[in-house]
Amino acid sequence: MKKLFLTLALAFVGIMSANAQLWLGGSASVHAKDGFNMSLAPEIGYSFSDSPITVAAAFNFMLGSSELTGTAFELGISPYVRCNLATVEKFNFFLDLTGDIFIPDFKELGWRIGLQPGIAWNATEHWTVASRIGFLGYNNSLMFNDGDQGFVLGFQSALPSLGLYYNF
Questions:
Q1: What is the average per-residue pLDDT within 79-83?
Q2: DSSP states of the chain as a string?
Q3: Which of 41, 74, 99, 120 has a CA-to-CA distance to 112 between 20 and 30 Å?
């Protein structure tokens, strides 16, 4: 057990001392098709300057209402790994591998895992605006993708989000 904690501590120190860029921000999304869903998600992450990889986590607060689920409130966490696929001037095209874990109405566990494409605009050296839309993966929650459970491919039905981030 001591070896595990030592390994985790060394990994944390390595990440903190690496040439990384910390960023804070968050995203919001609203979706109204056969009901209403709203989500707020503050985020924290690291962008490694020598790599196209970013690691981050969002803390989600979602409120929704539909014929299928009624009114529901969900809390959750969404860790993800982002890979920047292409950069065109101030725009980055990316793909997120995300795993969302939610507790709807504090009763049962909902989750999904999959890919989300998106685009980011680096407005200045410190400010970035990003948007994700669509989802390809497995969904176990009634609040996502209009209640479709199982394997899902959705662009209109997935919650599009718009985020604002400050890069330190």
A1: 95
A2: -HHHHHHHHHHHHHHHHSSEEEEEEEEEEEE-SSEEEEEEEEEEEEEETTSSEEEEEEEEEEEEEETTTEEEEEEEEEEEEEEEEEEETTEEEEEEEEEEEEEETTTS-EEEEEEEEEEEEE-SSSEEEEEE--EEEEE--TTSGGG--EEEEESSSS--EEEEEEE-
A3: 120
Round to whole Å and give the CA distance between 9 and 168.
23
CATH of domain 20-167: 2.40.160.20
| Residue extents of the structural domains in the chain | 20-167
75-107 b/e (C-beta count within 10 Å ≥ 16 → b): ebebebebeeeeeeeeebebbbebebbbebeee
Its pTM stands at 0.73
Residue where the block lists tokens 């948007």: 131
pLDDT digits (tens, 9 = 90+) for 103-120: 766 667 788 899 999 999
Location of structure tokens 């718009």 = 162
**Distance between CA 15 and CA 71 in Å, rounded?**
41
